[in-house]
Amino acid sequence: MNKRTTCKVMVSGCLLASVLSGCASPTGESGTTATTEATPVPPSQRTDEAVRQAEALREQGLLDAALAEFERAIAINPDLTVAYMGAGDIHAARGDYPAAEESYAAATRLDPRNFDAHYGRGLMLQLMDRVSEAIRSYLRALTI
After folding, report:
1. What are the domain boundaries of the chain?
2. pLDDT tens for residues 11-27?
3. Which architecture characterizes domain 43-142 according to CATH?
4. How far apart are CA 46 and CA 29, in angstroms?
């Protein structure tokens, strides 16, 4: 190759490289991006975040907000025992024993080997004077 051909090849190569690098970038500018689409967050991560947030809010005494977060976690994943337990604990602390019993009952259906769920349900049943049901729930807890 002569000097002129080599120069043409090098210039052509540089032009091609700059065009291709512009094509790879969404804005046509090297090193920057146009709008990027948000990567969808998996449901398990969303429920973990909701439960963590609910527990933090509960520790701060913000029970309404904590209950809303537990309910959000349940809406995302209706099989999340820990969210039912958290909601049950909040209902119990407020004295809403029927709602607490429902939450604990849901937890026992999802996780029949969960001592705390059976015990919590038994306690709520006892506080509502449903003693025979409470005894059954306590006995289930004791067999775990």
Report:
1. 43-142
2. 444 443 444 445 444 44
3. Alpha Horseshoe (1.25)
4. 35
